[in-house]
Amino acid sequence: MKYSRLYKDTLLNNVIPFWEKYAIDPVNGGYFTCLDSKGNVYDTDKFIWLQGRQAWTFSMLYNKVEKNENWLAIAKNGIDFLKKYGSDDNGDFYFSVTAEGQPLVKAYNIFSDCFAAMAFSQYAKASGDETVRALAIKTYFNILKRKDNPKGMYEKNTATRPLIGFSLPMILSNLVLELEDILEPEEIERTLDYSVHQVMDVFLDKQTGLIFENVFPDGSHDNSFNGRLINPGHGIEAMWFMIDIGVRRKDKALIDKAAQTIITILEYSWDTKHGGIFYFMDIKGYPPQQLEWDQKLWWVHLETLVALAKAYQYAGNEALLNWYDKVHEYAWSHFHDPENGEWFGYLNRQGEVLLNLKGGKWKGCFHVPRAMYQCWQSFENIETQIQ
Amino acid sequence: MKYSRLYKDTLLNNVIPFWEKYAIDPVNGGYFTCLDSKGNVYDTDKFIWLQGRQAWTFSMLYNKVEKNENWLAIAKNGIDFLKKYGSDDNGDFYFSVTAEGQPLVKAYNIFSDCFAAMAFSQYAKASGDETVRALAIKTYFNILKRKDNPKGMYEKNTATRPLIGFSLPMILSNLVLELEDILEPEEIERTLDYSVHQVMDVFLDKQTGLIFENVFPDGSHDNSFNGRLINPGHGIEAMWFMIDIGVRRKDKALIDKAAQTIITILEYSWDTKHGGIFYFMDIKGYPPQQLEWDQKLWWVHLETLVALAKAYQYAGNEALLNWYDKVHEYAWSHFHDPENGEWFGYLNRQGEVLLNLKGGKWKGCFHVPRAMYQCWQSFENIETQIQ
């Protein structure tokens, strides 16, 4: 079967039906994301990242695939819950709430806000709802206001070692394109300039060609646990955000550099013994702090497939396609669950299922459907070019 | 070889020499704890838990094993560092500082303080230093003052689900005995009453016989990730603290209940497929949040050996000795490093070394030597009774 067909079929006939069937909370609204391998709810807490992400996914599908009213209703179910229960009096989004919407874990950083903003923006486009559109803008500027001190009073690090983290510029580079219909063009270009510079000049290390997870503001490195940390999935995911920006700006150099970086990171982080991509590594080969460093995570592999597909689509290098085939083979033979649908999230180093779940605190309706959609689109394009 | 002899020899000729040789920072004082498998320093950050714990270990050995002046000097090296760099203006102890003592991670909970207090108390006893004795008392009362809100402003949980954690009553039950020479008898008895009640009546579940990691203040359970969490190593470690209290109070019922609880937890958490004790479990068998749930950790197995040795010493049940032999066999054949000394800290579920280190952010000079000392003492006593 052609890749485009496989990814499209899986998205529409396997992944989306799974979340339509099992994730909706008909009583309180919002989504259950803690679903076991068969889709049964094993925990009812609601994690705001995942509420935003599922609302985004169904809005995006409505906008890009089909004007399916059920998808719009599912998106609205999450948007209404987020509007009602998602944020505190400052408009900062909680990390988690109970099934009924009572706050459980406070707004201790700005990533809940990022995914809420993405959801509001896509849903506003899908529904034409002006209130939600205004909420997307408000949330975006609240994120910018907090971006230099994203953890606020919850920041436990002193100023002794002023490292900056990769997550923020990485997510901004995607968020601002998500909010394209809503923000002023100057705001978009300014934030894209900032993100591309941060990602490609500050965090991308010239010497190794790898993305460091934490660096000093001038891009220099610190010989500490945080300073030595490599998060291959993060680096690769950011590269497809860069390719999207490169396509938008017709910047071939940016696309080529991103494509090369994907290969460099993959060569560095591929587990030659058991296959798959490591979760965390230490640039000097020292023991990482993260006990889960050698595990194989679904999102790392899916983001890699998206990055390789886009890179091959626009840079056309055969090495990218060879890597695609290799990662595709690993991912589909290990994460995909032919029995009950959707993908497992967490494997041990050996590739065995570590947690028998389809969703949890961090895995929801997002990486699998987004990657299925992106790979479908890229390969439809690639296959058309080849014919 | 007799167990008493093996544990004593390993303590004095293998474990202590390792830390004497590799952990001392001769330039700034304090200890390096990030040591690779051969003892080379791979990171110079200083974690306050581990500074306190190593100073405690060498003070304890001086007090209980031998008046070795080198041990006292090594203890002083850590005590001086803690006095100079360990705490902020409130007297709250940081989580970590640089090699030179500059604060890195703030005082976001009270466990650094607990290990500092233990160290000050043992060192005051060893050295007769009145300043350090006063510091032990001051630190202890600072802990009590913070105990109902141990994370202070860093607490991210709302009041929606007011679960209480097991760590605090557990550590208090040991800390107060550590500070026996320093605190008033009424203070000791009051805190022991509180701790025993919390551990044995509130956290120990009557129905399953297991210790829950988080419960409501009345001991009832919550069906959430935190509420379902079982930390077998914590539960078992607390049982030897209970046995120490039972011995002190001549409370045979407490000793027997603790001994039974050790067996119940072991039967629940032993990995029948690969051997060893799981790190985290979910009481309903759902996927835990902790990705490292199935790993085998050094401290879990060592605390289990101490608990079983003490339980067998005072409760004398053959089932305890059978378990001891089984855990001993697993631990010595997997954690012990005959090539370079000391023990590995982290194994994967299969029992292979996951992190090739002898010390890190959490593993220092503490669990291995303390357990070697405790097992040596218990078996010397047991073997004498048998002869």
From TrEMBL, chains A, B:
Nucleotide-binding recorded as keyword:
no
Instruction: Describe the family membership recorded for this protein in Swiss-Prot or TrEMBL.
Output: Belongs to the N-acylglucosamine 2-epimerase family.
Q: Which Gene3D superfamilies does the annotation name?
A: 1.50.10.10
Keyword annotations from UniProtKB, A to Z: Isomerase
* Record's keyword annotation contains Membrane: no
Q: Which InterPro entries match?
A: 6-hairpin_glycosidase_sf, 6hp_glycosidase-like_sf, AGE/CE, AGE_dom
Q: What is the source species?
A: Snuella lapsa
Q: What is this protein called?
A: AGE family epimerase/isomerase
Q: Which PANTHER family match?
A: N-ACYLGLUCOSAMINE-2-EPIMERASE
Which first-to-last residue range defines the signal peptide?
none
